[in-house]
Amino acid sequence: MPTVVLHLPGDLLTKLAEAGADGTVELTLNVSTGDEPVAPVETPRPTGPLAPLLHAGLLTPGTRLHLHQPRANRTATATVHADGTLTVEGKLTPFRSPSKAAFAVTQSQANGWITWRLTDGRTLNDLRDELDQSEA
Prior knowledge:
Elements: H1 12-19, H2 51-55, E1 64-69, E2 74-80, E3 86-88, H3 98-106, H4 112-115, H5 124-135
Antiparallel strand pairs: 1-2, 2-3
């Protein structure tokens, strides 16, 4: 039977502690037979609509976004990834845009820029406004 060896980053426990109770820490798995060297994993460059917010540091990989619609009794959580995608809890595919991620939850047209909120209550649109003001 083959042996499986996991090499975890030395700062994993620190990252887990810093993530807090609702945080996300992403780990990447490299598969190797041990005969060939394992290439270092490059962090993907963000693309898509969220890329400017990630480049500016207004969003970071692992940021949790919340959608709450009390009248429809809907709540959802999405996680921002380094490549600019969002994954929504309970959905298998990542979404390139906040509005498509919101549609996956609401099953109706939704402006994801105002629907998804950070834990402090700001919307993605608020972050875009902050970015626009900082570039002016």
